[in-house]
From TrEMBL:
Gene3D superfamilies: SOS response associated peptidase-like. This is Abasic site processing protein. Keywords: Covalent protein-DNA linkage, DNA damage, DNA-binding, Hydrolase, Lyase, Protease. GO terms for biological process: protein-DNA covalent cross-linking repair; proteolysis. PANTHER family: ABASIC SITE PROCESSING PROTEIN HMCES, DC12-RELATED. The keyword DNA-binding applies. It is an enzyme of class 3 (hydrolase). Belongs to the SOS response-associated peptidase family. One of its GO terms (molecular function) is peptidase activity. It comes from the Bacteria. Its EC number is 3.4.-.-.
Length: 264
């Protein structure tokens, strides 16, 4: 549970991503390009699961609430504290260890926003968009959890209007957290944490249902060899208006100064 990676943009057409990952589209058809996504908002996740009836593996893009709800969460407000998870302590944290062995995912995005901090840890007014220089999407390591909406607690009564990410029967809500690591290189100038960005060639292993042991998954995610080469990234200064979650236009991603190359 950290304060970083709390805002991102995802605006590209989803079909090329689905083709690249070999996933079917089970997302909410009403979801559109968004340039300022905050925690607890609906996001796109890519998961892989084993169908109990057919025994076949299904890889799918789905809609989830950003902020993981473990089975013991009493209400939706819990998700405001679990939108990030430290990779170093995934097996130790009750909120995340139940998902580590079976419910891993990818959160695709075009870039995430971060504000540079001074030596005292205070956030400046200047945000940066961290994105790939070639425009390809970032693939963030994540965990998901299905949270029962119709549990015995009164706060779990399904709403009259289904939440994005709700199962077809209205009983379950898919929720997600983005995994973070200690920042290095240029990214450490922005924040002491950074999201775990996976290289495309390692995504299949992270999603695979064959890795069903939490200890193995913990060791895997701690291996930096699976990370995207940071020199493929750049930091672009953007409009401070991104700090207001009500602002959603494409002008938010327009650079207002020269991009800064990212170093390892």
């Amino acid at each position: 549970m950290t304060g970083m990676c709390g805002r991102f943009a995802f605006y590209q057409e989803i079909d090329p991503l689905l083709d690249d990952l070999g996933a079917v589209d089970l997302t909410d058809p009403h979801m559109r390009a968004r340039f300022n996504v905050p925690p607890t908002a609906p996001i796109v996740v890519v998961t892989e699961s084993l169908d109990r009836d057919s025994g076949e593996v299904l890889r799918a893009a789905r809609t989830a609430r950003w902020g993981l709800l473990p089975p013991f969460a009493k209400d939706l407000s819990f998700s405001a504290r679990t939108f990030n998870a430290r990779r170093e302590t995934l097996r130790e944290k009750p909120s995340f260890r139940g998902s580590l062995g079976r419910y891993r995912a990818i959160v695709p995005m075009d870039g995430y926003y971060e504000w540079r901090r001074d030596s005292r840890g205070r956030r400046s007014k200047q945000p940066f968009l961290v994105a790939r220089r070639d425009g390809a999407p970032l693939l963030m390591a994540a965990l998901v959890s299905w949270w029962r909406l119709d549990g015995t607690d009164a706060s779990r009564v399904p709403p009259s209007v289904p939440l994005p990410g709700t199962s077809e029967d209205g009983r379950w809500l898919l929720t997600a957290t983005i995994i973070t690591r200690e920042a290095t290189g240029t990214l450490a100038d922005l924040h002491d944490r950074a999201p775990v960005m996976l290289d495309r060639e390692h995504v299949d292993a992270w999603l695979s249902t064959d890795m069903d042991d939490a200890a193995a998954a913990q060791a895997w995610i701690l291996d930096d060899d699976h990370l995207l080469d940071p020199t493929l990234l750049e930091m672009r200064p953007v409009d401070p208006a991104v700090g207001d979650v009500r602002q959603q236009g494409p002008e938010l991603i327009a650079p207002i100064g020269p991009a800064i190359p990212v170093t390892a």
